[in-house]
Amino acid sequence: MDHQKREHHDNNSEQNKRKKLGTPDEADGVTKINDVNDDCLELIFSHLMLQDLVNVADTCKRFQPSAKAVFATKCRGKLVMLHPSVHRLQPFESIENFVKVFGMSNCLKVLRHFGHKITKIDIDYFYIYTVKQAALGRYMNEYCADSLIDIAIAGAPKEVAANWTKPFINADSIQLLYSDLGDLSAWFPKTRRLVLHSGAKWVENTFPHLEQLDIYDDVSERNRANVVELLHRNPHLQQLRLLNHGYDMKFMEGVSAYLQSLTLLDICCDNGFFHLNGSSIHLKSVKEFNIGLRLVHAIPKIPFSFDQLENMQLEVDDFKMNDNFGKFLKQNPSLSKLIIHSYVLARAQNSHSVEQIKMKIAEVSPSLDVDVEITTTVRIGL
Question: How far apart are CA 207 and CA 140, in angstroms?
Fold first, then answer.
């Protein structure tokens, strides 16, 4: 009897051992992860956080197609912001239209596994070693050259582009801050929008498809000639935004011949802009004109004339209607929409209300559609 019990116990132990070891006899009915098709994997992976999704893609090639499909769904249309010099306990952050990636290793993994699914990217090259800058640039070019549409780059030295081997053939919008990437028209041949921030290397390229140029840097003697040459090489430009100080009528007269295809001009002016001989620049194709008159005490004679002007935005400190602005409105009867942003000091005593401003303008242009926004500001030291 004892012998039978021992034999029965031994048989049960052997069966349990086979179950634990997953022997072929007992495991044939078990579904393994490798047995699951890609659709099921996508469903499983769709519940993962972005950090886990990157880790899954980094695990084996079998999981990569499904992980990439999930990434494309989760991050479709979002701007992927890479911060390789910043290290956080939470290395990935997804907020509304942004995906932020922190740490060099994580940035490289995202580019390697999901680069061809990224269409918008913002890369910060500041505060990382030159060797790592080069590696980050190489990965960006190798894995994203065909997919990127919007590119923003900050702090990129020449070494970044030195590792590129092919152009970004679909790049539509390029933004540069403190970056020098060499021949931009060669790397970004289909660029329609070029944004140059402070410290961007000034370029003198011809961009066959360029429609919009935004310059946020001051025009100084150092870069004035470069800007003139850039405008000279791209007379087909349709939108120009000069969104910092340092421009004047002398500069505008020098480039006016290259601006005759413009449909939009956006310019920021200070008192120094108008210190010339009272001449005027004629822009025949402009339909939208935005002008910022900051630190200008009264609206001067606006030294631009148009044939087709339809929309205008005016930013000014404490707007007050005067003869100069009245003449400008009369000279542009095609103008149908006017938006005024008036910045008024908190202690100002003689500022006009929205109704008063609209009434004054209606006396000159009765049919003009006018919106007025008054913002109260506080000047430090008052």
Answer: 22
Q: Is residue 234 part of a domain?
A: yes
Q: How many CB atoms lie within 10 A of CB 197?
A: 18
For the stretch 188-237, pLDDT in tens is: 999 999 999 877 776 788 999 999 999 987 767 667 888 889 999 999 99
Q: Which two tokens stand for residue 189?
A: 């041949």
Number of domains in the chain: 1
Report yes or no on 136 lying in a domain.
Answer: no
What DSSP designation does 312 have? E
> What's the token pair of residue 29?
């009915």
Full residue range of the structural domain in which residue 240 is found:
211-382
Residue type, 295: L
Per-residue tokens: 83: 């911060």
What is the number of alpha carbons within 13 Å of residue 113 lying toward its C-beta? 29
Q: What is the rounded end-to-end Cα distance, in angstroms, of the chain?
A: 105
pTM for the whole thing? Answer: 0.85
* DSSP secondary structure letter of residue 272: G
**Tokens representing residue 222 in the block:** 């150092």
Distance (Å, whole) CA 238 – CA 219: 20
* 265-292 average pLDDT score: 87
d(CA 43, CA 219): 54
The CATH number for 235's domain is 3.80.10
Residue bearing the bigger pLDDT, 333 or 23: 333
Q: Is residue 233 situated within a structural domain?
A: yes
* Domain assignment of residue 175, yes or no: no
- C-alpha 303/C-alpha 280 separation (Å) is 4
